[in-house]
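User:
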Amino acid sequence: MVNEFIAWFKDLSLKDIPKVGGKNASLGEMLANLKKLEILVPEGFALTTQAYHHFLKTDGLETRLEQALKTLRVESLESLAKTGKELRSLIMNAPFPKEIEEAIAKAYNTLAGTHTDFTVAVRSSATAEDLIDASFAGQQETFLNIKGIDNILEAVKKVYASLFNDRAISYRLHHKIPHDTVAISVGIQQLVRSDEGASGVAFTLDTESGFDKVIFINAGFGLGELVVQGAINPDEYHVFKPFLKAGRQAIIRKNLGSKRQRMICQSQGSGTETLNLDEAQQKRFALSDNEIEALAKQCCRIEDHYGRPMDIEWAKAGDTNTLYILQARPETVKSRLRGHILERYALKNRGKILVEGRSVGNKIGQGQARVIHSLKEIHAMQKGEVLVTDMTDPDWEPVMKRAAAIVTNRGGRTCHAAIVARELGIPAVVGCGDATSHIQPAHEITVSCAEGETGYIYEGLLEIEHQKIDVENLPPLPLKIMMTVANPERAFDVQRLPNQGVGLARLEFMIAQIIGIHPKACLEYDKLSADLKQAISNRISGYRDPVSFYVEKLSEGIATIASAFWPKPVIARLSDFKSNEYANLLGGHAFEPKEENPMLGFRGASRYLSPQFKACFELECRAFKKVREEWGFSNVEIMVPFVRTLEEAKGVVELLAKNGLKRGEKDLRLIMMCELPVNVLLASEFLEYFDGFSIGSNDLTQLTLGIDRDSSLVAKQFDERHPAILKLLEEVIRVCKKANKYIGICGQGPSDHPDFAVWLLKRGIDSLSLNPDSVISTGLILSENT
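Assistant: Predicted structure:
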């Protein structure tokens, strides 16, 4: 019978799930099949489900557990807590059969060999855990840095007891999984000493959108439990799979996490301890670029072997810098999404922002805030309230099901709160820092995850707009439906809509929200005041200097959109800030003129060519060159805004070429915004310098009708369908068609006015760049008029 109790990982495969559970079977599957692909899995063995059943039959334990479960009142959290405590106590006080103790000791001594200071991780592996159609989100326990047979036996018993944690009992009830159908195996695995290295989790898709062309990695220093538990805000990296597999540069985004703590092995005895990291350590990325790509390659090989999206735990040993895979299981939330219905949430108005953090999902939730500081207070939580707390762990799951939304001080997008929120389909904002201090108990709040990767908690119950869109219901059209994308953080999500690419990718959001620093302040950092230097220094943590930060973050923003729509064209517009907008950036007031009418002032091509801004413009050129040549996103095209004269057209084209962005070279197309009446009147002449036009109907209407579109006093007269505007548009479409040049429109008009879109369709325009929320509705109207 002893042979039935122990199974070595190297002898296991996925067919052994009933015997050793999902985690252990997957470890065996990787050891047997992926070692030749340089994927390293720490050796170990499993205590089988047969051992668990044998333990239950000892001293009548199984019968006593069944009797205790009969007292459970499903609807009562108090009853759940009382019954769970009794079940765990029964298990911890039950004696271990001698034959199981002997089997574990023999296997452990074989694994340890001659090592006198050998440590292991003791992990659960339940038979219903880590399966394709169920995610248990770490419900059972893991114990790290366990030394010696006595400590291992105690840890095994604690793992058994964790099968009856409150959250595990609740989860099985919620998913209608009978308690007696779930057995537990225990994995005993050589510990990777990542306490002096790094660790984390990786997904072979983007966890928010389900976009499957990227690897999404979370990383922190030390043992991985702090990342898994959500106790720290980890680094985040996105790696583009097609380029990774082609051997090209593939890291398209890096976000530095605060990583305030590191979990390490206790120097004396078993167990772990948590240390605070100093500020300098927090501002370092946990992995180098080479390590990120090496890990991503391993993730791709694992996904290819399993044939489905995967959720992977990894660790880097501090002494050798070697990467190990600790676990690999099916991703169970985004990969289960079926059908083509896309849900859209938006706020009709905004209120006071109380706190912000990392958004999970794209929904909006609201209700009274229930601020909970400890697990003892969870019984007060009422259905429909917003849970606000420091962080959650699996013990919180029963109460999380009652929440309309979740807000936490700590955690990243793969923390426990985020995983459970996705599975429950509720919005969560994690890593807010101080939500429990700034949100008042019982106050009404709105939690918005519908505005990109930053989630906002607003004061009050704001009005919400909710749409369901059938993303397949769009017939073929004689023109291209493209999209306008400002926020790279939404690109992975909106690419699911039917489209032929991006007709306008705005740089302004990237510069204002992601970078937040005036380019001149980056270039002249050494000349700034001490306070401004400190503010900029805090913002560029993890980067070599302000200029590197500016170029890298701008490159990442463009590359994120380019990767989401690859290989479809992405027309990215050079920055079109006005002086008052640039002034709002860090350091901006020192470098920007004060203009009476910035709309008609220092903007567009005039700015790029001016001596005082040319060096700043060159930073944009460096970003575009990096995206197109270093990454290889040849689908990125460049659009030049607000070109007043032919001399400016010629000058900008020459300046771009001087900075390595020559029209026609490496298939680079240059598009000009057609947004001034002079652009239409001299269309043929402007087209000599460009490969086509994209109509900016907002400015064209403003400058033709002499209406300030921002003035409420005359706003009613602003209409892109004015006869004068239509006459200009007919002319510029005719000229482009005659010259066989591209002609599209990226202004707001077609998104707001379907009849205007139909008019443009009938005039033979090549493409409409629409707001994502109007793609389906406008496309259907166009199909009816084809």
